[in-house]
Design goal:
9 strands; alpha+beta; 2 helices; two-stranded antiparallel ribbon; about 40% strand
Length: about 190
């Protein structure tokens, strides 16, 4: 069984939060004006006819030293791309700005990305427009830098047993040698 890369889990967490919805007074409200049209990857699925829609992907990542205990610190550049159409150029600019603010608030509301990252910060925005067709069309790219710890090779696939307490003892007179050890198995959670 292969292990899922941390950046994949971070992308998935952000996609799910951008799709989030709630019901208020019988009406479904979404986290952004894109509603549930949020997709991982760089290409909008062919079945999507209604815009705006969001794409979430990453193209760059860099190593940035170590956090602690030789755990590699990574900085992921994650992009949220919005594709938008509107009735007028003014409406297009307004919708691009509304989307930018909504996406930024959703992504940065949890800088730890469901416990997968150490920090997240806004990096850049880029917009472009095409007003040649019947309806103006626009694109928005929001970049975020997300710091996370890459599991070490020793940690990959293993998990600490928090129900096991291990202690080594240096008996008197203290000489630095461990004369005895003890393992205590703690009881697991009680079943209801």
């Amino acid at each position: 069984m292969s292990e899922t890369h941390p950046r994949t889990l971070i992308r998935q967490a952000i996609v799910e939060r951008l799709k989030a919805s709630g019901v208020v007074n019988g009406e479904t409200l979404y986290a952004t004006p894109a509603g549930a049209r949020v997709y991982p990857g760089r290409v909008l699925p062919s079945h999507v006819e209604l815009l705006p829609a969001l794409l979430v992907y990453d193209d760059k990542e860099r190593s940035d030293g170590e956090y602690y205990q030789d755990v590699d610190k990574r900085v992921l550049t994650l992009t949220v791309e919005a594709q938008v159409e509107a009735d007028s150029a003014e409406d297009l600019d307004l919708l691009l700005d509304v989307l930018a603010l909504a996406v930024e608030r959703v992504v940065l509301a949890d800088p730890y990305q469901n416990g997968l990252a150490q920090d997240s910060r806004y990096s850049a925005t880029e917009k472009t427009r095409d007003a040649d067709g019947a309806r103006p069309f626009g694109w928005l790219w929001l970049d975020f830098e997300i710091e996370y710890a890459m599991p070490s090779r020793e940690q990959a696939g293993s998990i600490d047993d928090f129900l096991l307490f291990h202690a080594d003892y240096d008996l008197a007179p203290p000489d630095g040698a461990k004369e005895t050890a003890d393992d205590v198995h703690l009881p697991g959670p009680e079943e209801p």
